[in-house]
Amino acid sequence: MIRLKITVFCLVFSATSFVLGQDFKFGKVSKEELTENVYPQDSSAVASVLYRHQSVRFSYTQGVGFKLLTDVHERVKIYSKDGFDYATVSQLLYKNGSDAESISGLKAYTYNLENGKIEKSKMEKSAVFKTSRSKYRNEEKFTLPNVKEGSVLEYHYQITSPFYSSVDEIDLQYDIPIKKLEIAVEIPEYFVFKPLMKGYLPISPKLGTKAGRINYTSKNRSNRYSAATNFDAQTIEYKINTTHYDIANVPALKEEPYVNDMDNYRSAVKYELQYIQFPQEARESYSTTWEDVIKKIYESDSFGGQLKSGRYFQEDLEKLMAATTTESELIAAIFLHVQGRMNWNSIYGYGVDKGVKTAYKERSGNIADINLILTSMLQEAGLNANPVLVSTRDHGVPMFPTREGFNYVVTAVELEGGTVLLDATNKYTKPNLLPTRALNWFGKMIKKDGTAKTLNLIPKKVSRESTNVSVVLKANGDIEGKARKSYTDYDSYAFRNRYAAADEEDYLEKLENRNNGMEISDYAIKNKKTVGKPVMESFTFNLESQANIIGDKMYFSPMFYMAMTENPFKLEDRNYPIDFTYPWQEKFVMNIKLPEGYQLTSKPENMNMALVNKMGSFKYQIVENGSGLQVMVDLKINEAVISANYYADLKELFKNVVEKQTEKLVLSKTSSDGTADSSGKSR
């Protein structure tokens, strides 16, 4: 908590109140709201916010200090059972030492229409749960009662925070649509904040000022010889800077595939404190730069202080150095040693949990424990190694310079040929292959002199999944065959993390279920846990009813169970980038033996499609080969992140992929002379 010197004028801010509009007065839920069956602008919405009011204001109590008060009043409509999750409300509360945010004045009701009458159910205190989420976060969660399709939920509470220098980010867009949103932010002139907007909604806040009055009381003795005390009440006029956001019909932030974190694109406003200045006092600056953030992190005992001593691993390091001759060998040896010795305890953080010495001894620790050990060993070996601050994909991209923007650390080694990135917290990574959780655009490498360098974390190398299949198509429409699959780089990393520790019988059962109930036998796998080599699978399979037989014709997709059947991109437009995590390629080669007595009479046309700037491509080719066919399919995405400017092109590419892979070819029975009869002509 940041505390201000309280001078003789002792501020007292009178509470400001926001008078709600008559239509949204708490408890005044209408029959029209209860009978609404769908959200007018989005019939797919499972719920909507009918109204939300949030006010943020400052308060000061003489002898206590400043507080930040946030009032929340929200009314939510439930349209279907899929919206029942919105009956549970969660509020994270920050804490630091003995200071902690708290909730008061909580009241919540559920409204239902029963036999034409509005019935309301009050939430009991037993529905409120308080838990500690971490060293710095508590959570208060409550669930409203008697929720049904058509219910309206309403609740109100106030958050009191001693951390007046930090205004929580205010969301202006949710995962469900909002009919009416009112936000009021009122800040005394002594506190100067900079609003930082993000998202794609066109928002024009209304700025203004209002008069405020500071009442304070001072006491003094009439003279130094008297015990009598006099109390003086005085008033100071001050200015309050106001910002109001009044928005209607806010569309839901629709979840789309291939996004690093949707919250990066949610419309919101963050207030960053620039400085505080009271009358007749020096200005206290809080403006932060990346340089300030980096310096504070590096100088902390839980980060830079952990790199100062390497005696705890010295004996092990000497053995590794004696067994290697080149820099590359030494980097690999130290990395494999730390990766093999240490076990991640599933806790994130760029600051250590146990401390590197204890973690090394106990062979386990959090992200910082393990990767700072790795950094320290590399530095002690004479390599130019430095820690790299990272924000994980689910933590969001740090848009603004703040220590809370990072929650992870990896290691970088600078060589003449380039920079090698390392993370020893996962058993299936290797040099320049970080865990996918850390592939979040950029990281900040901190050097020993305190300077920082931005590193691009986006992979460039294409990871490949290749499938070769030999199929025999039977006259009854069943197929049998043999398949061989291989996975490289991030595809092999993903496979190992999902299945390396899985029971083989359980894995095969799930594989059979995913592929329409096929029967698998003769399963074999190579390099299941051997990092650096492709994972290779092979198996024999049988699958029923893969062709439709109508009269003397047979219709089937030559991709069979492997066809992509749905376009992952469904929105008409998209404002945020398409993040595939890493470049990838899916390649199929299918050799299909046709049933005796049938002849190919119609097949899909070949296709060769490419995106601009070689960002991606799709190739589809069918070649007749004696009594069979060879199908070659190649889908390739060469960029891990593609700008939203190319969304329409990418959506069209995948549309063609789905159409082509699901398009059927036609076989017709042959006549006695070996040619298709008249009924076998192409339709």
Quantity of strands, as a count: 37
Please compute the radius of gyration using only Cα atoms: 32 Å
What is the CATH C-level name of the largest domain? Mainly Beta
Briefly note the structural class of the backbone.
mainly beta
Overall tally of structural domains: 3
Q: Can you tell me the CATH topology of the largest domain?
A: Immunoglobulin-like
Q: End-to-end span in angstroms?
A: 76 Å
Gross morphology is globular
**Largest sheet, spatial ordering of strands:** 6-5-9-2-1-11-14-13
What composes the largest sheet?
8 strands, mixed
- Extract low-pLDDT stretches: 1-22, 678-683
Overall pLDDT metric: 90
Strand content: 35-45%
Number of helices: 9
